[in-house]
Structures are given as structure tokens and as C-alpha cells.
Amino acid sequence: MQSAISLSLSSPSPIARSAVSNTSDASSPAPRSLRFCGLRREAFDVKASFDASSLRLNRFNLHSKSSNSSKVFAALNGNGTPPSGGFDYDLVIIGAGVGGHGAALHAVEKGLKTAIIEGDVIGGTCVNRGCVPSKALLAVSGRMRELQNEHHMKSFGLQVAAAGYDRQGVADHANNLASKIRNNLTNSLKSLGVDILTGVGTVLGPQKLKYGKGDNIITAKDIIIATGSVPLVPKGIEVDGKTVITSDHALKLESVPEWIAIVGSGYIGLEFSDVYTALGSEVTFIEALDQLMPGFDPEIGKLAQRVLINPRKIDSYTGVFASKITPAKDGKPVQIELIDAKTKEPKDTLEVDAALIATGRAPFTQGLGLENINVQTQRGFIPVDERMRVIDANGKLVPHLYCIGDANGKMMLAHAASAQGISVVEQVSGQDHVLNHLSIPAACFTHPEISMVGLTEPQAREKAEKEGFEISIAKTSFKANTKALAENEGEGLAKLIYRPDTGEILGVHIFGMHAADLIHEASNAIAMGTRLQELKFAVHAHPTLSEVLDELFKSAKVNVGASNKVAEPVPV
Amino acid sequence: MSSHLLHTSFIPTAPPSLRRRPGCAAPLPRTPLLVQSKIREIFMPALSSTMTEGKIVSWIKSEGDKLSKGESVVVVESDKADMDVESFYDGYLAAIVVDEGLSAAVGSTIALLAETEEEIALAIAQSKKTSSSAPAPAPPAPTSDAPKVFDEMPSPAPAVKASVGTNALGSAEHPASEGGKRVVASPYAKKLAKDFGVDLKGVFGSGPNGRVVAKDVEAVLAAAKLSGGGAKVQASEPPKPSGVELGSVVPFTTMQGAVSRNMVESLAVPTFRVGYTFTTDALDALYKKIKSKGVTMTALLAKATALALVKHPVVNSSCRDGKSFTYNTHINVAVAVAIDGGLITPVLQDADKVDIYTLSRKWKELVDKARAKQLQPNEYTTGTFTLSNLGMFGVDRFDAILPPGTGAIMAVGASQPTVVGTKDGRIGMKTQMQVNVTADHRVIYGADLAAFLQTLSKIIEDPKDLTL
Fold first, then answer.
1. Which of A225, A231, B24, B436 is deepest in the core (most CB within 10 A)?
2. pLDDT of A454-473, one tens digit each?
3. Which residues of chain A have a CB within 8 Å of the CB of B207?
4. Which of A166, A373, A132, A93 is nearest to A247 (CA)?
5. pLDDT value, residue A382
6. Radius of gyration (Cα) for chain B, nearest Å?
7. What is the pLDDT of residue A280?
8. Cβ contacts of B174 on chain A, cutoff 8 Å
9. pLDDT value of position B1
């Protein structure tokens, strides 16, 4: 990382850094309404979610250029040096999900004596009930889809007899994957010497907490809350785990209903619709907003709808709430009462074989002892500032207490939690650091995939209008990409939203084969502050899908003229 | 490919023929001429520098839909990508000139846009006219005529709708529908119904709790096909043989179009035919004996066929996907019935198991229902083997076209006295009937049919088993 930074510092182009000032007063990143990990629109309304400084990340590593190589070496010797100041630990993390795990790993690297408290299973939602098992199911659905697509196979010259599947086998694959990843995670913590404390962790006061049944009290210099979230089940919906289910149940794939209603068309709903339709179910989406896939860039959403929804056995109701859902019993099907989202008037009743509640996720903060430190949750989320420091009921920072991941609601994504955790560890080990959430990519693993980073077009337009700059849009199609055509997967679009005056990337949205893997070139560019005029010279192997982005960057028209060359240098 | 291409205006001002004449340029009170100038043409846009023609992937809006500026109207596939094309004006999509799936050169008209609802008719009328450079005379503005023109446009889907809608109409009421007030149909069933214009209200639901599922809709569609579009059954106007104008070219009605398509589709199945002559003296004798008990010849033939099919399940099989075939569990003999100048195929279900008297009663019931147009889809779509009999017209032999989705159909000719030579060199008179079976050679081979016909011949020539 250090080397990368010195490289860009020695970059002959001052422009590379110049736009940082532009971004830092950019502020007001319109809330990302993408409902990743069930993130609801409101989730971002939690105060102080981003502020100007959150965009300064481009330089975070520059702040930390003082060498801390000795500490890095310490990591090789195990879990830190004995903590100073009479604390049991330097850092205690409550919750061993992906966020807590990422923080723990980085803390050890930084030489902190670290413990992690887990009241359930190591790995949290992502590994056990979320991203990981769902990827196993989606891997199956992707293959089923391909094998069932006669036209597709024929165009390859392949002949495949009727493809079928064994439900239990599919379910086992998901379960095996989860346990394998869980073991990997546990082992990595153990091998680094992180103490794994079992039981529910409760904060007793500043720098003091207890865990487990025996009321084991420990002290820590710093505490990170990373307790994550659970599926959100709106009022009136009765979950029985058999016919009315949440993602927790669905991932076990105990049945493949003939007709399943999916409440919520965010990314969880979309991914499950992909799985279920590939396995032969018919799907009905119930979406409270007026259009499906809210939060995605509208153009991408439109295309995705044309590919992922319209041709499949899916229908939808938009602008309605499922006010009451009754599980199937006594030979009656699942009953869903729909009311108009605005007028609240009854609209319709559906009778289906099963209902999946994918309306979002609610933060899990039970038993944390927040009252002991006078912290009040907002809509269930723990309020934090841009440095993940917990804010109490009086608006004051609680010293040495941080909250990362779904529990703070900033961006409900596993990798965002991990990045927040690393950011916190940077801070507690003496380097100020603010994470730029706009550089965190997000992906939806449908077939084909959807991925994005930064702002959507409407968000970018709003921001541009407010701050008085121009934006431009560039697009490339997968249809023009050799590799995509070789794979017979020409359906897809990559879209770039940028500032023609500076070459700054504001957002990139990809719909197409392997979109989730392709986005990182863009997210890294945003994180590093790399400009389009520089990216244009980067070389991509031919023929690869990454050329979609190559072409995208090259098609951008950046007007960085001579005048920009004397742009004021940015302090580093 | 860059975005600016998308923003190219593809709706120019009105074409020359529609421009106001100089004399009328002044803002006069609203005259028809001014009104007409509000109809804009939507052109095939150039989405890339190399694009010469584009294919319409899909129309996002339908004719008559209101459009706002910036809304996507159509998806166009160029040589490089599919792109949404947006409207640059508010108005109504009056007429689609180039249908989905068709291509058009860049710059050619693909649709007409009317500014107000009233002008839709005008636009449609205009779309009918070939472009003429003559300055527009007083526009016809035939509000009442134009839609009619429209209705007459052959569009296959509504044909099915027309037939299917009424065909199935009746008592198809499912428990989940609150006494028929609403239709409970699965997402795919709805999609199919929409695509093929089937009215779900009358469709019999075979899913859980009487839900209409995809196969119910497919059954209705298959029935519509099977009965020659089922369309004629419903044809409100019986054909007027006298009113035919000789020498005139008559475009297909939508129903005829549907029939035509189905017939052409049947060509995709490799069929072959095997003929056989049965001696029916014994059968005729049996028929005479039990006629008084209400037994019909049709029932006897169906029963005999069903009993033969029991021994030759392959002839009762069906191949739908070209990759596998199904040995049908039930032996359901469909019998083609001409009715009102059309054709429908009521089905005698489990004809092998039901006794001849019940079968005869069932047949009478089916015919009555067919006449009253009250057949339920499962009563005319579930056949696994079809009988077609033109013997009553004195036809001695013919061959039938295999209905898609079934394995074989048997064309039955008239039973008539024939002079027959026997092996011992004598000549005698016997009543004989020729049959000709058309079968799907992907699953049923010559020897299968031959063996089946041999079995059937034995049953017919020694029909005592029919009354068991």
C-alpha cells in the first residue's frame, strides 16, 4: 500500500490529486437507496451518515505515511503485546461477523491485543445466513439456467438432455459452503491468537464489558460493536419458517414452492427470484415503491428488469404493502393482504404457496447494554459519526466505543462493515482515518450480475446541480465485447457517470456477465482518486470482459485543458 | 455508443407532406390542417455511426398509450447494443408502423405520435395511406372509421382470445376466486395468457385450490389449435357461401390466420401414414343389437380404439419437446366433431376403462355441450389419440393432419359393402371400412402402427370384448 501511494505522489500529473478539493466540498452524498443487505432508504437518514470529510479518504493513507513497520512486524508474533494501562485487552469486538473479523485481523496486524465476543456462530449473517450460502444457491441457479436455455446451448453447438436437480443436494452445497467458510474464519482468528470469547457481550460502561453466562467482566482500551442485523419482518406478517419465511429459512432450501411471493424487490429479493425461478418456481414480487428494483440506477434497473424479470415466470405488484400474511394451514394456501402503499386502502388478496419476506434487515442490538452508556438507537441503529464513534443520547461521543457494520446502518454490506472495522483500528492505533462510503462497491449476484459504485445518475445530477458542475455519461455494451460474445452473453451494459471538467468518476454501474468482479477497477479508481485521463492509459488483456470498462473509460470525453494544468496543488 | 447518440432527436418536425402550406402558416383558428401537423413520425434512430438499420426488440408502449417527453418508447437493437429510445415530445403513441421483431432502415418511420387523443384516429388513417406528396386536402378525420380499419388489421392473438374466451366460458369457477369475482392465476399463467390473449376468467384452474397454472392456459391454447382455431366454433357470423364474390382476394380473418399458422406448424412434425382395411360385419351386427340401448357407432369405435391402445402404449404417447416422449397414463380418445362450420374435439376420457353404455351416454353429453358451447377445456384439450370420421359423407379414405402434441390420429372412411376375394379363391361380399393413421414418426414407427392396426382389426372383427 505504501508503495502504491508513493507512486501516485510522484505522479507527474498534478491533476491526479487536484480534484480532491472538489470532492471534499461535495458533501451531501445523496443517500444510496440501494437496499443492499436489506438496507432501507431510511437507513441513510441516520444522522451524520456522511459529511464532507468522509470524502477525504483519498488521502487517508497519506496521513499515515509515518512508518509503523515495527508494529506490522509485531503481527507476525501473535496477538499483540501486553496491553498498556492495565486493560485486559487493547481491543474487544462484540460480534464475530465479517465486520468483526476484518477488524480483528487488522488489529492483530497493528499489534493490538484483541478479543472477539460471539454469542452465536462465528461468521455472522454473511457467512451463515447471507451472502455466502446464497452464492452457493446462485451458483446452482446459474448453471440450471444455462442448461435449461436450449437456444443458448444450441448456439454453442451443445446438446444437453433435460436438466434436473436434487433439492437436498443443492441445499447441502449451500450448507457445506457456509460451514467451510465459517471454519476458515474461525481458524484464521485462532491462528492469529485472537481470543474468542463465547456468549452475549454487554457494555457495562466506558471500556468495560461482560460476556457469557458467568458474567465474566473484562476491560478494554477500545470497544467495537459489530452485532449486525436480523431479517426485518414488518408488522402483520406471521413467519412460520415453512410457508412464510425469511432469507434465514430460504437459504436452507427446505422446499421449492410452486409459487412464491417475494415481499421486497431489493437485492435480496432479486437474488432469490433468480434462484427460485431457475429451480422451477413462479414468483410474484410485492414492492412498496412504485417501481421494481428501487435504488438501482434507473437505466440499469430498466435493463435488468427486461432481462431478469420480464422473460421469467415472474409478475409483480408495485406501490403496495403486504399488510397481513398468514402462513398456510388446514389446506389453505398462504394468504397475503395487499394495501395501497399511499392510501392504505385494501387492494388485493393473494393466495400463494409460500412467501419470502425480503423487506430489509433490522439492526440487532439486543442485550448490548446501550442504556449503561446512555445511547439511544435511532430506528434501531446505533448512531455514529463518520469515524464510527458512537454518539450518545446527548449528542456526545462515547469515548473508546465504536460501532461498525449493519448495526450502524450506514451501508449494510459485509465488506462495508469490514472496511469500517479497519478504519476504526487505524484510528485506535493512532492514524486518523475516514472511510469513503462512495468508493464501496455493491453487487447483486443475479444472472447476469449487477454491480455499482458511487452515485446513480439521478443522484449525480442532483449533486451537480447543487454544486454547479457538469456531468457526462458514457456507456458501453457487452455486445461489443469479444469475450462476452464468445460466451454468448452479450446482454449487458456498463455506465459511467463522470465530471468532464476533471475526469473524476462519480459512479459506475454494470449489468452483465461477471459485473460483480468487474466493478473493482472503478471502485479502486474512486478510492484512489484516479482520473479517467489516467485510467485511459491502463492496459487490459485481450480478449477479456475487463475491456468493457477499458472501452468505457476511453469513451469518456474529459476536457482537461491547459488551464487545468495549473490547478492548485492539493496539500498532502 | 456514447451517450450523445442517444440524445439525438429522432423525431423531426412533421414531414414535408404534413407541413402547413404557406397560406395557412398564420395562426388561424384551429383548422383540421393545423391539427394534422401535430402528428409526428417517430424515426428509426441511428444509435451508432455504423448502424444502417435497426431491429425493433420491443415496443415498451402500446398504441394509444400516453407518452411524456423522455419516456422510453421502444427498444431498438443496433449492430452493437439494445437501446431504449425516448420520446422527445409529449403525446400519444398513435400507430406502430414497424412491429416487434422487424427491422427498419435508419431514418424510416417506425411509429406515429399524436399530440392529443383525438388525433390518434387521424394518425392511424395516415399510417394507412402511402406517403403521397400531394398537399393534404381536407383531412377525412374519420373518427368512427379509423378504429374500424384498425380492428380489421389481422392480429393473430386476439383470434385465440375470441375463441378461448367464450369457449371456456361457463361454469369454470374456482374456490379461490370468490365466486368468480377474481381470478387466481400463477405468474407464468398470467404471462402466457397475456402473450396469447387468453381471457383467464373462463379458464379452468387445475392447480392447488383451483388456481390457474401455466398448463391450464397451455391446454386452452392447444385446444384452440386443435379445433382449427376453435375459432370457427365461435364465429359469430356463419359463413355465407352465397355471398362470395368471385375473383375477389379476401385477406384471412384473424381466425383463418390462426388456423393457417397452426396447420403450417404441424409441418414441423415428421408424420407418416399407414392404412388398413377392416371388415365391419361383426361390428355392424353388434351395433344393431345394442343400438336401442343408446350405444353409438362413435362410442364403439372409440372403445375399440382404446382397447387396442392399451396393448400399444407407444401409439398413445406424445412428444412435445423433440427430446423425450411421454407414455400417457390415460387413454383419452378425442373425436373430431364438425359444428357450426367449425371443428371441435370432445374427449372421451379413459375410454379403455369406461363401459360402452356409459361411454355412449358421455358422448351424447359431450356433443350436447359442444353444441351449447359449454365444453370445459379439460373436455376438449386432453385427448391423447384422435379419431376423425368422414364416412358419413361417403368418403372412403382420406388422411388427417396430426394435431400438435398428440402421437397419432386415425382417419376413418365409410363402411361399405365390398366384393372381396378370399384365400380359398372364392369371392364374397363383406362390409369394409378403410382407416388411415397419421403418426409422429419421432416416437411411433411403422411397425408400431402396423401392430396397433392389426390389434384393432381383430377387435373390430370380433367385437365381443367391446360390451364387457
1. A225
2. 999 999 999 999 999 999 99
3. 258
4. A132
5. 96
6. 29
7. 92
8. none
9. 43
The answer for residues whose C-beta is within 8 angstroms of residue A353's C-beta and 6 or more apart is A243, A257, A258, A259, A260, A328, A333, A334, B208
Which segments of B93-155 does DSSP mark as H helices, in order?
A: 119-128, 145-152
Which residue pairs, CB below 8 angstroms and at least 24 apart, start in B328-332? B328/B384, B330/B382, B330/B384, B331/B306, B331/B384, B331/B385, B332/B382, B332/B383, B332/B384, B332/B385
Segment B421-441 shows an average pLDDT of: 90
For residues A308 and A492, what is the distance between their CA atoms, to the nearest angstrom?
Answer: 11
Give contacts of A 171-190 with B, CB under 8 A.
Answer: none
Mean pLDDT of B337-362: 83
Closest in A351, A477, A557 to B209, CB measured: A351
Interface A–B counts its CB contacts (< 8 A) at 65
Please give the backbone phi and psi of residue B128, each rounded to the nearest 5 degrees, phi first: -80, -35
pLDDT digits (tens, 9 = 90+) for B3-14: 444 444 444 444
Residues recorded for chain A: 572
What's residue B102's pLDDT? 79
The reply to whether residue B187 touches residue A475, judged by beta carbons under 8 angstroms, is: no
Task: Quickly list H helices, A316-405.
Answer: none
- The Cα of B364 is separated from the nearest Cα of chain A by a number of Å equal to 37
pLDDT digits (tens, 9 = 90+) for A110-169: 999 999 999 989 999 999 999 999 999 999 999 999 898 888 888 888 888 778 899 999
Among all chains, which residue has been given the C-alpha cell 457481550?
A201
How many residues in total does chain B contain?
468
**B460 vs B421: CA distance, rounded Å:** 20
- In angstroms, how far is the first alpha carbon of chain B from the final one? 76
**For residue B77, what are the CA distances in angstroms to B51, B101, B171?**
10, 10, 45
- Grid cell locating B363: 358422448
> Minimal CA–CA distance to A117: which of A197, A59, A189?
A197
Q: Are A364 and A370 in contact (CB under 8 A)?
A: no
AA identity, residue A32: R
The DSSP result for A136-184, as a single string, is: HHHHHHHHHHHHH-HHHHHHHT---------HHHHHHHHHHHHHHHHHH
Grid-cell match 405488484, residue found: A317
What is the 8-class DSSP label of residue B87?
Answer: -
| Nearest chain B residue to A482, by CA | B80
Answer yes or no: do B188 and A493 touch at CB < 8 A: no
Q: If we measure between CA atoms, which residue out of A79, A75, A77, A107 comes closest to residue A91?
A: A107
Which of helix, strand or coil describes residue B145?
Answer: helix
Q: CA distances (Å), B76 to each of A298, A301, B320, B432, in order?
A: 18, 17, 33, 63
Which position has the grid cell 429479493?
A269
How many CA within 13 A on the CB side of residue A79? Answer: 21
Nearest CA distance, A129 vs chain B (angstrom)? 28
Cell reading at B171: 361454469
List Cα–Cα distances, A534 to A14, A60, A529, B222, in angstroms: 11, 21, 10, 61
- Listing from the earlier edge strand, what are the strands of the sheet with B408-421? B271-279, B427-440, B408-421, B385-389, B333-335, B347-348
The DSSP annotation for B353-416 comes to TS-HHHHHHHHHHHHHHHHTT---HHHHS--SEEEEE-GGGT------PPPTT-SEEEEEEEEE
